[in-house]
Amino acid sequence: MDFEGLDEGLNDGWRQFISNGEGPITLNDNAYELCSEFIENGSEFFKVVSRYDDILSDVVQRPNYKAGDTLRLILPFLKACGVTDRSMLDFSRRNILIVPGARKTMRFVQEFMTPFIVATSYEHYITAVCDAIGFPMENVYCTALEMDSVKTDAHEAEILKNIAREIAGMSLPPIPEGARSLDDLSPQDQAVVGRLDEIFWEELTDLASYRFILDVNPVGGEEKASAVLDIRRRSGIGLEDTCYIGDSITDAQTFQLVREGDGLTVSFNGNEYALREAEFAIISDNTVVTSVLAEVFHKAGMEGVNNLADNWTMEGMKRSGAVNPYLLKEFERTFPNAMPVLARVAPDNIKALTRQSMALRRSIRGEAIGSLG
To answer: Residue 22 to residues 196, 207, 229, 248, 362: CA-CA distances in angstroms?
Structure first.
């Protein structure tokens, strides 16, 4: 298959496929894994910062802060532990875990739709992923970063390592359902958030590595939505002909944008934030379901997708006439016993879908990564 010149001929297709990276394509959480590898007790450190990110973006809605900004908050600490551009790229290449079927899916959709990846991940990781799946980097939006551009000394590194130890020892349990202000959190959690506010917005500000927090702009939240609008401009394809696949809090605003534009929004093994905003849910350990949905959307639009979801059986797929015989055989080989979940998200099933989706998410990505926002 020839991917050359893809950007020049973007408006040749009349529908487009846009996917998040981690979750729908890979099983990794690269930022979590970097912290676990390079920072002392880094997994606990990252969990606290990630939950803090959820609170700031979804509960407090702090001005000039968006979902996914975890990726800028952790950078001074990675720098203090000697992480470089080269070590990030090498680590990413060594540790890529592709979702079963994702290589085939990403190649398959390029045969009939204009494809893009919009990912919060650092460009080092996305570069490694695109190399692994044969995807053109010119059709990727991700978080630009130059780790080597900031110089720090041993004294600053020691300060940051001590703060990282303090953060790793904190505890932030799940956010209460329906929480919309800090007052909805327990007094203990409010105190932890207050201490994290002091660290990130007061104590670190004089350090050279604070430049990362000021300058790095993770592609999450509104930045993902902006990327989709830029894709619309580049491709000439409207939101109504856009399929967006996501799985996390960083996809919520993009789901809102595409859904309001009458496009297709799909949570792939998504968490509660994704399911809250997506119109359809896939719960599956293989992306062949994504391939089926993409082909049906390409051939029959939203009407075809709705019919597929309403008649989600092998016979229903065959009767639709929108799924090619090769893909039907691939689907039957992948799921010989039971159908994966494809469902329209509705008020009466969202809790059940969330339980199912989170259970599979944790099963295939690991408890720690699967529980992150």
So the answer is: 26, 31, 21, 9, 14
Encoded tokens for 182: 């800090």
Tokens 């690991």 identify what position? 366
Is 206 within a domain? yes
125 and 228 co-located in one domain: yes
What does each C-alpha distance from 355 to 71, 259, 327, 359, 362 come to in angstroms? 27, 23, 29, 6, 11
* Range 85-90 average pLDDT: 98
| Alpha carbons 155 and 209: distance in angstroms, whole number | 12
Please, are residues 315 and 327 in contact by the beta-carbon 8 Å criterion? Answer: no
Q: Is 347 exposed, middle or buried (0-12, 13-18, 19+ CB in 10 A)?
A: exposed
Does residue 2 sit within a domain? no
Domain containing 74: what range? 30-91+145-215
225 within 8 A of 257, measured Cβ to Cβ: yes
- What is the per-residue pLDDT across 264-320, written as a single tens digit (0 to 9) for each? 999 999 999 999 999 999 999 999 999 999 999 999 999 999 999 999 999 999 998
Q: pLDDT tens digits, residue range 305-321?
A: 999 999 999 999 999 89
pLDDT digits 0-9 by tens, 334-354: 999 999 999 999 999 999 999
What's the CA gap between 96 and 233, in Å, rounded?
31
The structure tokens listed for 190 are 């409010």
DSSP notation for 16-28 = EEEE-SBTTTBS-
Residues 359 and 225 in one domain: yes
- The residue to which tokens 């020049």 are assigned: 8
Which residue among 178, 196, 215 closes a domain? Answer: 215
- Any idea which residue has 């939505």 for tokens? 225
